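To whoever is on call:

I kicked off a structure prediction for a single chain this morning and the downstream step that reads the tokens threw a length-mismatch warning. I double-checked the sequence; it's 196 residues and nothing unusual in it as far as I can see. Pasting both halves so you can look.
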Amino acid sequence: SDIGSQKERVVTEEEWLQKWEMGNIGFHKEQGHPLLQKYLDVLLNGRSGLRIFFPLCGKAVEMKWLADMGHSVVGVEVSEQAVKEFFSEHSLPYCEEPVPEISGAKMFQSTSGNISLYCCSIYDVSSSIVGKFDGVWDRGALVAVNPCDRQRYASLMISLLEKNSSYLLVTVSYDPNKHKGPPFYVPESEIQSLFG
């Protein structure tokens, strides 16, 4: 697949943290994503009380929306600022504790217990730490990870899935020679080869 000039592009953790510090977060949707509302039935598949994973969650408003429906939400985000903004913008009380298995990581959990956000690199989590999930809302994660890390990312995500889970994935389609990313262009053929 020709992903043009993006193949070698690497965005560092520091660059992502800087985006949050500078408020350069055009990827954040204040109203939630219309595609999640449109395909919610596919994600839930008639089930209630699901564990739903938000990779690279930022401060996605959909986390509160799904938790309010009775689901348990777990997110991973490298920016502590984003995580704290999520709780403060929704007036949600939370507690903060270290994650013993991951050096320097913290877990922020709503006092209601149904939203747990891990502040660390996505590659530091595993099913032994965060458990397995019935659903994944991947709105801006696959398109944000560096192209060279896609296989590693997809393998991690597959390892976090329960048997009958649903994975909703949003990608973007454009000419990768005209935009350096992120969001990166992920052709459908590559999604097939990553996730099968």
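Update from on-call: the warning came from a stale cache, not from the record. Cleared it. Sanity check on the structure: The chain has a mean pLDDT of 93.
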